[in-house]
């Protein structure tokens, strides 16, 4: 039978290396789980950025991470209440987008592995509906 003996110094060195790796890995995981937001694109004022990120954390606390629709709905509803409609919110891990937004209303950021796209679309809903009806009426009058 082959036995391997290590002396006390070797054991202490081994433990120091592995403990330092353990602490590094532990703090790395905590940092990842804490989920500091990473803004990828924005033209939104700082106060709105702070507010939307705060709402994102609240939504993540209130809903399952896999329930992207509820998370997006929560943020959209709160932004509509605070800043008038029509805000849009897309939440997910992998999505594409092609949008037109009101200047000063766009933010695209990441928390952990979740991405958030929040933006305001033109005028409020009632004005948009009235505009759409007006355009429809004009086009119907133009067609003989």
Automatic annotation (TrEMBL):
Q: Name a GO CC annotation attached to this entry.
A: cytoplasmic dynein complex
Q: Where in the cell is it found?
A: Cytoplasm, Cytoskeleton
Extract the SUPFAM superfamilies matched here: DLC
Which GO molecular-function terms appear in the entry?
dynein intermediate chain binding
Q: Which SMART domains match?
A: Dynein_light
Offer one Pfam family short name for this entry.
Dynein_light
The entry's keywords: Cytoplasm, Cytoskeleton, Dynein, Microtubule, Motor protein
Tell me the Gene Ontology biological-process terms attached to this UniProt entry.
Answer: microtubule-based process
Task: Return the similarity comment.
Answer: Belongs to the dynein light chain family.
**Name this protein carries in UniProt:** Dynein light chain
